[in-house]
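Predicting structure from sequence has reshaped protein science. With that in mind, we have picked out one protein's residues alongside their backbone shape tokens:
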Amino acid sequence: MPAQPEPQPALPPLRDIIRRHSLDARRGLGQNFLLDLNLTRRIARAAAPLEGCDVIEIGPGPGGLTRALLFERARRVVAIERDRRCIAALAELAAAFPGRLTVVEADALAIDPATLAAAPRKIVANLPYNIATPLLIGWLRQIDSYAGFVLMFQKEVAERLTAERRTPQYGRLAVLAQWLCHVERVFYVPPRAFVPPPKVTSTLVRLTPRSAPLGQCRMEDLERVTAAAFGQRRKMLRQSLKSLGGDTAALLAATGIPGTARAEELTIEEFCALAKTLSD
């Protein structure tokens, strides 16, 4: 007979947790809480499978998504939270799931989350929007440490992550993310789903690491090239790449890319070729 699922502990409503611990969302911390447990379960399921996987969550707040990750059989959840008010609320949840929830009081920008969880590890989070992009870029620099990411972004950032070339949204973020990952928008989340409602629509994005990058180059070189190219995206590459220093004409000639091309016309593979040639 198949193994019976373990019974789940009875937990108090999230609004009771918020009231007892005075967890009013703070704008300075980028807090917008998700209290709809059907929605948080849907987010957790988008990261499946979670069995046998450690999951890192950034900014859990009162623990709505944290509950869902535990209910969806994550081996262990490491919740990184900088708001001390939330630590006591999350401690209650940790007591209900002995050995499966670790709460770390820290600034996610200041630590390496991969050191806190065992492989295979995923990051699943409703990210604070004011630090979402730098967090993601930092994790991409250590892509081999992660089995995947399921992250909430504001809609405009999600569109930039998934953008195709020759579109206005195509830029540095699309190149860096798609170079290393398959990137897909999963579903939209309206402002009313959050407490308090943000002024923007949100989008859940799934990033699955590729078996091999789309081109061979160093990330720091790719960052330099894309920053230069998209920093002056209306200009031809023979002009925009001058900020890199050196012989721009020779760089373009070595890769076979015409100097009259503009950044949004290049494939990710072509950006990689530029980055590798620049390094060489």
